[in-house]
Amino acid sequence: MDLYEFGDNEIFVTKIGLGMAALGRPGYINLGHDAHLGEDKSVEAMQNHANTVLDFAWQKGIRYFDTARSYGKGEQFLGDWMLSNQIHEPEINVGSKWGYTYTADWRVQVDDGEKHEVKEHSLAVLDRQLVESQDALPGHLDLYQIHSATLESGVLDNQPVLERLAELRNDGMLIGLSVSGPQQADVIQKAIAININGSRLFDSVQATWNLLEQSAGAALQAASNAGLGVIIKEAVANGRLTPSNNDPKFMSKMLKLQSAAKQHGVGVDAIALAAVIAQPFVDITLSGAAQMGHLASNIEALSVEWQADPLEIFAEFAESAADYWSHRSGLSWN
Question: Cis peptide leading into 26, omega within 30 of 0?
Answer without folding.
Answer: no
